């Protein structure tokens, strides 16, 4: 999967949003905060509805995001993609030939440079920049890595989405149901 069919990707925090997403036209969903015990059922249900499920591996309660945890997500849960802030998790996902998104928090210049080095080393399929409301940083990350950028975090309006896309983001993740439309 090289491109997102929709420029807006629902990021889900609860079951109510999960049901809403299944009724939408969006092909891809991101599960943020979920429990390991619920994951298998959620992924199966989404797959029955022809949706692709990306899991934020760092936020699954009850899962250790190490080699065995990632193998479990891939082989047992059958996720379509992994999101993580950890380079080693992205490396594992790529090793298993699964879609990998490196989540990058832009806290300051030092954090940005450090994370850019990791991204250049592990070569994720996409980089998700948080907060996604800083157009100059979206452009800079893409320019320095050549890896497509997803904008996420603090996306509160249609204007935020437009600004991120105009600055070169390949897509925008948001947990705001009103912005999925």
TrEMBL record:
It holds the Pfam family G3P_antiterm. The keyword 4Fe-4S does not apply. Keywords: Glycerol metabolism, RNA-binding, Transcription, Transcription regulation. The keyword rRNA processing does not apply. SUPFAM superfamilies: GlpP-like. Gene3D superfamilies: Aldolase class I. PANTHER family: GLYCEROL UPTAKE OPERON ANTITERMINATOR REGULATORY PROTEIN. Regulates expression of the glpD operon. In the presence of glycerol 3-phosphate (G3P) causes antitermination of transcription of glpD at the inverted repeat of the leader region to enhance its transcription. Binds and stabilizes glpD leader mRNA. This is Glycerol uptake operon antiterminator regulatory protein. It comes from Salinibacillus aidingensis. The lineage of its organism: Bacteria, Bacillati, Bacillota, Bacilli, Bacillales. The gene is glpP.
């Amino acid at each position: 999967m090289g491109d997102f069919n929709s420029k807006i990707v629902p990021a889900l925090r609860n079951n109510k949003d999960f049901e809403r997403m299944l009724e939408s036209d969006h092909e891809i969903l991101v599960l943020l905060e979920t429990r390991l015990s619920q994951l298998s059922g959620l992924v199966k249900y989404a797959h029955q509805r022809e949706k692709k499920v990306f899991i934020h591996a760092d936020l699954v309660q009850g899962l250790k995001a190490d080699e065995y945890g990632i193998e479990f997500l891939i082989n047992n849960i059958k996720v379509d993609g992994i999101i993580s802030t950890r380079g080693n998790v992205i490396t594992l996902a790529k090793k298993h030939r699964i879609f990998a998104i490196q989540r990058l928090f832009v806290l300051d210049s030092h954090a940005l440079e450090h994370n850019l080095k990791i991204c250049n080393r592990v070569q994720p399929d996409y980089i998700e920049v948080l907060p996604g409301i800083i157009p100059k940083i979206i452009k800079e990350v893409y320019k320095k890595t050549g890896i497509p950028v997803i904008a996420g975090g603090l996306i509160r309006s249609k204007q935020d989405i437009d600004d991120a896309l105009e600055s070169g983001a390949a897509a925008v993740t948001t947990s705001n149901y009103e912005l999925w439309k």
